[in-house]
UniProtKB/TrEMBL annotation:
InterPro entries: EmrE-like, Small_drug/metabolite_transptr, Small_multidrug_res. The chain crosses the membrane at residues 6-26, 38-64, 70-92, 99-116. Its main location: membrane. Keywords: Cell membrane, Membrane, Transmembrane, Transmembrane helix. Belongs to the drug/metabolite transporter (DMT) superfamily. Small multidrug resistance (SMR) (TC 2.A.7.1) family. It is found in: Cell membrane. One of its GO terms (cellular component) is plasma membrane. PANTHER family: 4-AMINO-4-DEOXY-L-ARABINOSE-PHOSPHOUNDECAPRENOL FLIPPASE SUBUNIT ARNF-RELATED, SMR FAMILY PROTON-DEPENDENT DRUG EFFLUX TRANSPORTER SUGE. This is EamA domain-containing protein. It comes from the Bacteria.
Amino acid sequence: MPDAIWNAWTLLGLSAIGTCAGNLLLKQANLALSNRTLLTIVTSPWFIGAIACYIFDLILFTIALQHLPVSSAVPVVSGIRIAATTILAYIFFGEHLTVNQLFASGVITAGIIIMSRT
């Protein structure tokens, strides 16, 4: 596989991590504030960090699409985002993690492997 393709898959993975980090920062923005008005949320450093992560994600995803078909990239990145966010929300926020969620994360991972080989 050419280096450009490997680099594109790496950028795609980093893109997914950017979105996952943004989601977790949004959750933290809501948890860290006692006065949760729209203004206090959007001016919170956690919220601003989330926006930065989403911009990072968008840039990396755009670059990855220069070398990958969108029909493969979108399902793969979506799967990584879902599985990683579920697991990291459990680790960082103590959110409930069920056997069904673990099973689904395994299925998503298997799907990612299958999608990336086509």
